[in-house]
Amino acid sequence: MLSGKGVAHPAPIRPPWTDERRIAESCTRCDACVHVCPEGVLTHGQGGFPIFDPALGSGACTFCGVCAAACDEGVFDLTRTPPWTIAPTIETTACLAHAGIHCSSCKDVCDENAVGMVLRIGGPPVPEILSEKCTGCGACVGVCPGGAIKLCAEEPMEGAA
Ligand code: SF4
Ligand code: SF4
Ligand code: SF4
Q1: Tens digits of residue pLDDT in 86-108
Q2: Is there a domain that residue 4 lies in?
Q3: Residue 121, class by beta-carbon neighbours within 10 Å (0-12 exposed, 13-18 middle, 19+ buried)?
Q4: Total structural domains in the chain?
């Protein structure tokens, strides 16, 4: 892995249509993909290699493919479906709805209808990520008033082992 030195550190989220192996083998750290992203959600992480960060720019990837088109090194594989495997997780202790406050910001922002609101007795509905619909775009992360939603690579990236 290009990240971390054995310390507990979340795996970096690479741009869509890439993985650790492709980055390690072919990326020249030219930053072209970072600079062209119209959503401003790419930056360079440890070692200068590109990463996706939903705290930046618009906060969400639209899968426009502009980053892939800008790369001259063949790092991106546009045949990859889905483009990445990113799973949002909701930390219930930080979620307002779980604390009894009505909130559906994550559901409201999700264009994929990938957030369900689960009815419960004794409190407002609580959000649940519907993994079969979620694209991992990141839009729900920045709108959460409790900072309860995190993205992580759901599975080890292809070739990362
Ligand atoms: S697909 Fe488009 S929005 Fe997503 S990271 Fe690449 S350039 Fe940015
Ligand atoms: S455009 Fe390609 S070579 Fe340049 S930083 Fe992005 S992935 Fe690496
Ligand atoms: S990351 Fe998933 S749940 Fe969150 S807004 Fe995007 S598609 Fe919806």
Answers
A1: 999 999 999 999 999 999 999 99
A2: no
A3: exposed
A4: 1
